[in-house]
DNA sequence: CAGAAAAATGAATGAGTATTCATTCATACT
DNA sequence: AGTATGAATGAATACTCATTCATTTTTCTG
């Protein structure tokens, strides 16, 4: 028990680390070959381990995929909360931080987006995937709606509701991901963020300055 | 040759009709089981035909999928052009027609969206799919950008570029599709369109009235 | 109507792959 | 050191499914 906690070397820790390693390999394989084209042999190979390893740690391919999606959602949620946390206080800063997060290299890169879209493509036929996606979506939506609500109250804006603004913003970022995935060549982080800001500055002029002006 | 043109009964026509029938069946199967889960037996069964029928008409599963995506894109493009055509003249009317199209039941229904997302999920690993998606995307983008350009010129708007507005709008509609697919229960056509309009009325106030006002 | 051509069938094939499991290897405890 | 326990291997298994093709059915043509 003495050396159990020495540099995270416990049995449980080792197991968790291996599972994470396999999940990472799965994401790479999905990005490379799609969910349909990915095989367990691919995953094992990517992780530098042997054939049966996935079934040993995850029981089945289905389980592996579900846990991969959960990990992806968890990862996103963590970054989301960190972004909100950094912009502590001001709702406007929070909103901007979320928009920036969604076009940031950490989130908005073809390899990651490919995995998201792969799962979204299966949402209709797999209730489990739908549930996970729905959960993270609702959470995102609620937070954004809350921030918009605060901003609207603070600025006494008359011509927009929190619902409308939130829906417009969340849709916009989700849609930007599609362009980034489909046309990564032409896609440009700055332009994308400017497009979002063009909405913010027009709808909430007291809280956001247009990209041109300092 | 006399009865060849009698109610579309020629050899070539019959062939084309059968191919279309198989493509329709494919879309249903993709929506029901995903691209990965769909089998050629499923498609044949859905069409009420026999095992080998797909290979007879399409040579391979890959071909079937490619042609299905092409058909989907073609279908969308046709509706797109019809919408633009109806709103002849005014760019503002054209833009609104496109936005309405994208949330209309003809386009924005889970069964159709599931197919789009299924293909998008494979875009990263299949250059062929990417090419088709990219093409329809660019076309859409160009048209919207042109309309925005005209509107901006006409209204002498200062604080937004055609690029920004077009990107915001196309992203928004794409993003709305995701919510419609993932949370079809809560999703509401009117709210979705209102969200888009909230952008239009704020950015192009001289051309669009807010949803509340007549 | 006869014969030819095209379309459709569905059983058989074989390639690919998730899963199993007997065996080997590594590590922790006494 | 010696033993027990968990981790990992990879060959063998069982199964799914795209594809083929010999045969049957339908449709066209003279």
Helix content of chain A: over 70%
Distance between the termini of chain A: 59 Å
* Average residue pLDDT of chain A: 93
Please give the radius of gyration of chain A in angstroms. 20 Å
Largest sheet of chain A: none
Oligomer: homodimer
Low-confidence stretches of chain A: 1-6
Strand content of chain A: under 5%
Order of helices and strands of chain A: HHHHHHHHH
Helical segment count of chain A: 9
Give the helix/strand class of chain A.
Answer: mainly alpha
Total beta strands of chain A: 0
Major protein interface: A-B, 58 and 58 residues
Explain what the structure shows.
Two copies of one chain form a homodimer. The first copy, chain A, is mainly α and about 210 residues long. Chain A has nine helices and no strands. The longest helix of chain A has 29 residues. Chain A is elongated and about 60 Å long. The N terminus of chain A is likely disordered. At the A-B interface, α1, α6, α7, α8 and α9 of A face α1, α6, α7, α8 and α9 of B. Chain A binds a DNA duplex (30 and 30 nucleotides) through α1 and α3.
Defining traits:
about 75% helix; elongated; homodimer; about 210 residues; disordered N terminus; 9 helices; DNA-binding; mainly alpha
Provide a brief overview of the structure.
Two copies of one chain form a homodimer. The first copy, chain A, is mainly α and about 210 residues long.
Q: What's the topology here?
A:
The structure is a homodimer of 214-residue chains.
Chain A: H1 11-37, H2 40-46, H3 53-58, H4 61-86, H5 91-103, H6 110-123, H7 127-155, H8 162-182, H9 189-203
Chain A binds a DNA duplex (30 and 30 nucleotides) through residues 1, 3-4, 11, 14-15, 18, 39-41, 49-57, 60-61.
